[in-house]
Specification:
The complex is a heterodimer of chains A (about 300) and B (about 180). Chain A is α/β, with parallel strands linked by helices. Chain A has two domains: about 140 residues, Rossmann fold (3-Layer(aba) Sandwich), CATH 3.40.50.1370; about 150 residues, 3-Layer(aba) Sandwich (Rossmann fold). With about 180 residues, chain B is α/β, with parallel strands linked by helices. Chain B has one domain: Rossmann fold (3-Layer(aba) Sandwich), CATH 3.40.50. In chain B, helix 2 links the parallel strand 2 and strand 3. Chain B starts with a strand and ends with a strand. The chains are: A alpha/beta (about 300), B alpha/beta (about 180).
């Protein structure tokens, strides 16, 4: 494995399977009476969050604490960043404090890469979401959830068909998922209105469709993406009603899925927009499991990056 | 040059004797749990449990595995390693006599890690240690309760236990470390 986890593309097939296998063993820890391992005792993990995110931050925090690491939470609001401090100066502060691992969420695509590769710090860097670029631990927890349901929890996802629907343009989750699922041998179809597909999507290792009904009967998993209202300065579709009619997952569409198929959503959901409440709370939905698996995956990543000799 | 110190029938006899000794000293199999330390401790634990069940019909001591990777004291000296299975039998270990099973007892560091790992799982009434080979050179105040064979070695030698379940053959080899 590489020293940092910046992109889902950093993971080879064997690396990805190793992370998933490690997470599977670590999942058992969360069911024990003592939910703690001594492995990262004496190591410091800094959660460096320049963007709001409750679930990812607490997921990383829980993961680091279960491995006995010391956790420092740093959010940009109320910090010296709001006084105009640069990423470099923040990084040098972390270095001076002896951080062994930095988990970074940043609004600018590429910020984790800059942090990892500019020689400012020695810590291992984990990308917890950068702009519209990548969110590799989300892709790993999604792959883990799929593997548990579709592949008996072992090996890779060879031959499985995954449909990812919605706002691909603004989605770091979609990009990381396409890269990782491709590495694991799955076949991915992106479904979105043309306005919500990024430039160059034809170079991604996946298929693209504008019609949601077509791929559903062959899908083993369908992942609904959040319509990111906060990133939508311009109009990308005529109305929310039209969007949810053409690209929303309702009971009729969920009924077209094969019996074993699962419904996923990285959260937070806009109920009634990209997914109806009925489907989100239905028997195929694994949305709550995704959150649980997130802690195991992040434990695995922190262990593999920080647990051994650096 | 490599020397074979135990062959298949030697291993079978040693494990049978250990099974007898466990039954004798623990006064039956009622409260036993056998936990193998991966990878080769696990099949050895299963075999000892089978012997115990054969000696005292009607008993079937539960068998599990205990991964010690996260508890090792040399984690920082090597790149992060893949984890092995931890499998605790349904009845748990609280109040029971746990017999840890490993292939080779050397420095004692693995056993120390296993004792730490155990304490996260519960509170056994007692913990015993069974090993197929005791090669000496302890670095911790740890000894085995049940030993298949004591094999005096030099520090430059390596001891390899092979079991049919993993390696396709049963034997113990001593070689010169390259």
């Amino acid at each position: 494995m590489k020293r940092h986890l910046l992109s889902a593309a950093d993971l080879t097939h064997d690396d990805a399977v190793l992370v998933l296998d490690t997470a599977r063993e670590l999942a058992a820890v969360s069911t024990r009476e003592v939910k703690k391992l001594p492995t990262l005792r004496g190591r410091t993990v800094v959660n460096l969050f320049f963007e709001d995110s409750t679930r990812t931050r607490i997921s990383f925090e829980a993961a680091a604490k279960r491995l006995s690491a010391d956790v420092i939470n740093f959010s940009a609001k109320g910090s010296s960043v709001s006084k105009g401090e640069s990423l470099k100066d923040t990084a040098m502060t972390l270095q001076a404090m002896g951080a062994d691992g930095v988990v970074i969420r940043h609004g600018a695509s590429g910020a984790p890469h800059r942090l990892a590769n500019s020689g400012w710090i020695e810590a291992a860097v984990v990308n917890a979401g950068d702009g519209t670029h990548e969110h590799p631990t989300q892709a790993l927890l999604d792959a883990f959830t799929m593997r548990e349901h579709l592949a008996g929890g072992e090996g890779d996802l060879a031959g499985r068909r995954v449909t990812i629907v919605g706002d691909v343009l603004h989605s770091r989750v979609a990009r990381s998922n396409v890269l990782l699922l491709h590495t694991l041998g799955a076949h991915v179809t992106l479904v979105a209105p043309p306005t919500l597909l990024p430039v160059g999507v034809e170079t991604w290792p996946c298929e693209v469709s504008y019609d949601l009904d077509a791929p559903l009967p062959d899908s083993d998993a369908v992942m609904m993406l959040r319509v990111q209202r906060e990133r939508m300065g311009a109009a990308f579709f005529p109305s929310e009603r039209e969007y949810s009619r053409r690209y929303g997952l309702d009971s009729r569409r969920a009924g077209m899925l094969p019996g074993h198929a699962i419904v996923m959503h990285p959260g937070p959901m806009n109920r009634g927009m990209e997914i109806t409440a009925e489907v989100a709370d239905g028997s195929r939905s694994v949305i709550v499991e995704q959150v649980t698996n997130g802690v195991s995956i992040r434990m695995a990543v922190l262990y593999l990056l920080l647990g051994g000799r650096s | 040059m490599p020397t074979r110190v135990l062959d298949q029938s030697d291993i079978t006899r040693a494990l049978s004797r250990i099974a007898h000794e466990i039954l004798e000293r623990e006064k039956g199999a009622d409260n036993l749990v056998l936990l193998g330390i991966p990878s080769r401790g696990v099949p050895l634990a299963h075999r000892i449990a089978e012997r115990i069940a054969a000696i005292e019909p009607g008993t079937a001591p539960p068998v599990g595995s205990l991964d010690i990777t996260m508890f090792r004291d040399d984690l920082r000296l090597r790149p992060a390693r893949a984890l092995e299975r931890t499998d605790v039998p349904a009845g748990g270990i609280d109040g029971r006599t746990v017999v840890l099973v490993d292939d080779v007892l050397f420095s004692g560091r693995s056993v120390r890690a296993a004792l730490d790992a155990l304490s996260e799982l519960g509170r056994p009434r007692a913990v015993r240690l069974a090993v197929l080979i005791d090669r000496g050179h302890r670095e911790f105040p740890i000894r085995a309760d049940y030993v298949g064979k004591n094999v005096p070695t030099s520090l430059r030698e390596s001891v390899q236990v092979r079991v049919a379940e993993i390696d396709g053959t049963d034997e113990v080899i001593i070689g010169e470390d390259a």
